[in-house]
Amino acid sequence: MYRFFINEEQHNENEIRITGEDVNHIKNVLRLKEGDRIVLCNGRNRDYISEISDEGSKSEILCRVVETKNSATELPIKMVLYQGLPKKDKMELIIQKCVELGVSEIVPVIMKRCIVKLEDDKAEAKKNARWSEISRAAAKQCGRGRIPVIGKALSFKEALKKALDEDPGHLLVPYENEEGIASIREFIKELKNSIKKDPDNSPTVSIFIGPEGGFEESEIEGALNAGAHTVSLGQRILRTETAGFTTAAILMYETETH
To answer: Within 10 Å of residue 12's Cβ, how many Cβ atoms?
Structure first.
């Protein structure tokens, strides 16, 4: 079934009113009619299996809720990607692919070796709006139950504090100077034990990825002092965008329960 995101204010008891650009997509692109079923998701892990009951006017479509259930596409962990700001349009690719791989939140981080600099608050807000739309589109395409949040750009120190406040035990830093793949295997083993001990309380894994120039030594020292785990992703040096994809894919594979 086709999938669309809604806001809770569009939901009234067993009826959902679809508005906005999705109306044109449903009517004129997909050519769905009364009686056809679609999945409407509130973006917070709740799915409404719904039947089109009235095509309504040009600006809305009415649907009757047939079944309500939790989305089955979310991981038993929360992955937050703290991404050192990359050059050009790499951030758009990182957001799109990491949403597909199950990341829950993406936070741009201004690190010492970042080449890109955010110009001002207005320019940052414009970029964030663009990135948020990419996140929404990717979540819709891959069937996510949540729309991953694109956070405000933080300094490295601010990002570490945020990660520690959320879950101090699961800070993960892929680092080219770390030796041996055993380091990430050990981290995953500890992570799985945490999930088994308390399956109702999802751990938050904070993944720190350096920019094109990598981490400064002082940043690694700061992360280690905060209790972070530095790990190797193999014997090859990965690009900033590849490192994020690889880490998210490994965690998705190791923790997926369905």
So the answer is: 10
